[in-house]
Every structure is written in C-alpha cells, then in structure tokens.
Amino acid sequence: MQPIQEPFYGVPRGVAYCQQERTEELSRRMRDRNVPSAPLQPQMCARPVLTKYAVMPILDQRKEATVPLATYPVYNPERVFNPGSAVAPWSGYATAVNVESTLRNQFFALQNCDQSEYVPSSNSDLYNVRIDSRQIEQTHPLLFKTEQFAPMNPDCFNLANRVFNNSTRTELKNVE
Known about the structure:
Distance between the termini: 78 Å
Oligomer: single chain
Number of strands: 0
Structural class: mainly alpha
Number of helices: 4
Radius of gyration: 38 Å
Helix content: 10-25%
Largest sheet: none
C-alpha cells in the first residue's frame, strides 16, 4: 500500500523560514539583559585565618596582594544596569543611607513639635491644581445623552409588598 501523497490544505511543502530578523533582534536583546551596562565592583570578602595550629597566631598570616584593586565608580541603578536580582555593589547602598533615612523620617524622634510632621505649604501644587482646559467639539453626540425610559412596574399584582415574611406562593393562588 502506498502512502497518500496529497498535500494538506494550507500546509506548505518543505521548510518555511519567517521573521528571522525579529527573532534575532529578540535574542540579542535577551542576551544583552544578562550583561551589565558597565563593569560592576566585585564583592570582596576577607576569609578568616586559621590560628589553632599557628606558632604566633597574633601575626597576620595572609599574603599581601601583588595586584592592586581596581577603583570603580559609585554604583547608581539609574545609570548602570545590573542584571543580578539580589546583590548589587555595596557602594550604591552605602552612599544612599541618608536618603533612605530621610524617606523613612528617621531623623526626628516621636515628639510633639513642628518638626515631627511635614505639612506642605498651602501654595504647593498639592492644594492648587491647575487644569488647562479648552473647548473641544464633541464628535460623539450620543456619548453623554441621558435616556428617558417609560415607568414600568414588574409587580403588577402588588405581591410581596412587605419587607419580610412574604408568602408569595399563597398570594399567587389569589391572583386571577
């Protein structure tokens, strides 16, 4: 028995390549999100020195570094993209401690004085809102039209006119 050689409707023969430029652009953009936009300061930590079996444990046993440490600018997330999710360079946090303390209002203790609360000026834009408006011709006349409906009472037999204890089954028996 021979296999059916009829082509399927709507299925092209062979391989169809499409949107390769867009796929390559998206791949390049995703790859670029894994690389920082500038060199980041590495996290250096000094390891403890074993002193249990040392002859003179009060002397520093670490070797001196032969390569000097490179200097990096202070990390600023507004200027440098960090692809990491948790640990950014310490210098960025350390320089913004006062900003965070100001935002948390930690400079003034809880007290009853003028500095304990911030009250904006009555001339600030919090209280004076300016909206520049101009007359525009309404292109959709039915947009703000209020409809007038005829009054309708769905309960024409006046059943269940009390708030509670309405026996509508017995009231329906009396409806003619």
